[in-house]
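stage 2 :: seqdesign
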């Protein structure tokens, strides 16, 4: 019997088999990156609260660079403005690949994680603003709890979710990518106090040249796209430097440059092109740099905060800034994501995939409350590096991220054990082609 054409489509489907394999590969890579991120943050916290704490802050505030180009920055600022641009470059590549060649090219599949990301941004911001309402000095941090840390969240899922359904993993990755893109948009719009118009207009020159060479890279660099980055890297740095000089946060350049990179998935005749596309080559080259160096170094310089013992910790956690961040990340994020997902199911033809339960989505939504990397960045932009409010925000971000990770691990760990038992009893059959039947069924 054929499917009823009026039947509701799955709210979160399995996607394609190649998509599932790619998501699994990303999960394996991010495990190491997430571990390095945590180690860097722990080292920073220990050093910042040790008898040698002054040396940590002296290192963080050490300035290097060339002032006439507006590039005489502290090491902490270089990490936040420069190294995180590499991280957001990968975020942009991942998002563009999802839109052009992934499952997000279908609006019916894209609408759910996008709606969930919006819910996970709006509600935490409203919660923080409500708790800090009437205080003009602290309400500026409303965007701190809006972001999800991709590396941290995906690393936790990779460790505890070995048997969880693939749609959950695709949902989290897509949600986190869209979430961070919204966060960087917020940074560009709301955390830019003064714009140097000349520098901003000049930014368009290397950006346009970068995009032109990237789109025509086969003509200029032949069939070996790996050679293109030797030319594109200095052009990209010029675009980053000019955007930094314009007053807009320089990490925006990472996303802008990534969106110019072509995602080559087929030729004009409909056949798959020979060799990897430039986006895939760049992702392969820059992901180890991002996960293994850029993000951990940023975490090292940003996570260090002198807590001041139990009394200082209690004082920090009683600050409305900290209360707003913790409540928004641990409660606001999952509630906003689940509410947006439920509303999508309620008012559209979408329904939850039979392989999933709402409790599974609740666990992944808790993981989205890990707002480590981008939240630390927004905290610095909101209150200034080294300010008391920023120090309290750091304590709250670290505490909320750990709490969200623990709660998600408990819930998803329990679900993972159940799925492992179920898969042991009812193995998914695979045809001779090795592709599980679930990916070949009509969706």
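stage 2 :: out
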């Amino acid at each position: 019997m054929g499917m009823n054409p009026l039947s509701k489509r799955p709210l979160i489907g399995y996607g394609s088999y190649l998509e599932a394999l790619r998501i699994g590969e990303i999960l394996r890579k991010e495990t190491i990156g997430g571990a390095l991120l945590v180690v860097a943050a722990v080292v920073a916290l220990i050093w910042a609260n040790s008898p040698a704490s002054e040396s940590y802050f002296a290192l963080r505030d050490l300035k290097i660079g060339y002032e006439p180009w507006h590039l005489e920055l502290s090491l902490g600022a270089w990490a936040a403005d420069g190294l995180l641009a590499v991280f957001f470059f990968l975020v942009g590549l991942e998002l563009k690949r999802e839109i052009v060649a992934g499952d997000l090219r279908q609006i019916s599949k894209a609408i759910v994680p996008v709606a969930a990301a919006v819910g996970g941004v709006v509600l935490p911001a409203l919660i923080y603003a409500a708790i800090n309402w009437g205080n003009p000095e602290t309400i500026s941090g409303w965007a701190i709890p809006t972001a999800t840390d991709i590396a941290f969240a995906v690393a936790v899922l990779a460790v505890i979710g070995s048997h969880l359904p693939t749609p959950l993993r695709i949902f989290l990755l897509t949600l986190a990518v869209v979430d961070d893109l919204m966060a960087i948009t917020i940074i560009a719009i709301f955390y830019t106090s003064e714009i140097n118009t000349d520098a901003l207009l000049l930014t368009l020159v290397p950006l346009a040249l970068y995009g032109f060479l990237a789109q025509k890279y086969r003509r200029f660099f032949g069939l070996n796209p790996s050679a293109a980055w030797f030319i594109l890297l200095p052009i990209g740095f010029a675009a980053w430097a000019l955007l930094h000089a314009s007053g807009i946060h320089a990490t925006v350049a990472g996303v802008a440059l990534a969106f110019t990179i072509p995602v080559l998935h087929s030729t004009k005749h409909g056949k798959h092109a020979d060799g990897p596309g430039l986006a895939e080559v760049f992702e392969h080259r820059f992901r180890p740099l991002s996960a293994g160096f850029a993000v951990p170094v940023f975490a090292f310089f940003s996570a260090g905060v002198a807590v001041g013992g139990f009394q200082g910790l209690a004082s920090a956690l009683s600050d409305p800034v900290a209360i707003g961040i913790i409540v928004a990340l641990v409660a606001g994020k999952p509630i906003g994501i689940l509410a947006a997902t439920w509303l999508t199911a309620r008012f559209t033809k979408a329904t939850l995939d039979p392989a999933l339960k709402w409790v599974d989505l609740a666990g992944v939504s808790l993981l989205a409350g890990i707002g480590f990397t981008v939240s630390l960045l927004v905290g610095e932009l909101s209150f200034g590096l080294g300010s008391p409010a920023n120090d309290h925000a750091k304590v709250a971000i670290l505490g909320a991220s750990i709490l969200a990770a623990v709660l998600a691990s408990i819930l998803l760990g329990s679900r993972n054990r159940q799925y492992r038992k179920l898969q042991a009893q009812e193995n998914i059959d695979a045809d001779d082609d090795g592709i599980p039947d679930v990916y070949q069924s009509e969706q």
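stage 3 :: structure notes
- The chain has 16 helices and four strands.
- Confidence is low (pLDDT under 50) at residues 1-7, 265-272.
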